[in-house]
Amino acid sequence: MQFNDVLKQSINQYKDIPLVQRQIEDYFERNKAARIYAELCEKNNWPLIFDHLTIRTYDIDKASEPYLSLGWKYDETIEYKNEGWWAKVFRNAPYAPFFIDQAYIGVKDHIITKWVDKFGDKSFHHIAVRLPQGLEIEEVISKLQLASIHFPGSITGGKGSRLRQVFSQAEIIDGTPFSVLELAQRDKNPQNGLIYEGFISEQADSLMKDSIL
């Protein structure tokens, strides 16, 4: 599949990490919303920034081993005990962090477990793209909707907050929701000029539920 120049440039940042480069290419080949977003970036002269890369698995520690060997390092654990799942974040600047999640052992019929049953843990469930500074997430949604990309869930995070996120409608493979595109809006703090780089537990769990819409 041919990618446009903006997407090629973003993927090429991983040319020295072939494993991750192939995973990113595979994701864009199979996710229409992501390809349409890349087209918007080229048309509007936006940077295409990967905010984070997400893997679903049965075993976070095992799934993270290839990335640890490539330079990613453990950063934090995020737990959702009442919702039956948890995640670890791994960082390796300047590359995008990995967000790797799993259901707790013994939790039956969880969204994550059923996804891994079907698709394994070598493909990205989603890539989050970081919106250009000054661009509101509602504007990007409207542009994607004009290209028949749907967003059945809700935006998490209110206007002016440190992190706003939304999932596109899931791609369907063999009748099962597969990958989604995440839009992530991270605006600079007007007081110190810094961008919040973390994750917000309540928002992540809300997006989890939206991932099968």
Give a brief description.
The chain has 213 residues and is of the alpha+beta class.
Topology:
Layout: H1 5-12, H2 18-30, H3 32-44, E1 49-56, H4 60-68, E2 73-80, E3 85-92, E4 95-103, H5 111-119, E5 126-130, H6 137-146, E6 164-167, E7 172-173, E8 176-177, E9 180-185, H7 201-210
Parallel strand pairs: 1-4, 5-9
Antiparallel strand pairs: 1-5, 2-3, 3-4, 6-9, 7-8
Structure characterization notes:
This protein has 213 residues and is α+β, with helices and mostly antiparallel strands. 34% of the residues lie in helices and 24% in strands. The protein has seven helices and nine strands. It has helices at 5-12, 18-30, 32-44, 60-68, 111-119, 137-146, 201-210; strands spanning 49-56, 73-80, 85-92, 95-103, 126-130, 164-167, 172-173, 176-177, 180-185. The strands form two sheets. It has a seven-stranded mixed beta sheet with strand order 2-3-4-1-5-9-6, with helices on both faces. A two-stranded antiparallel ribbon has the order 7-8. The chain is globular and about 45 Å long. The protein starts with a helix and ends with a helix. 34% of the residues are buried.
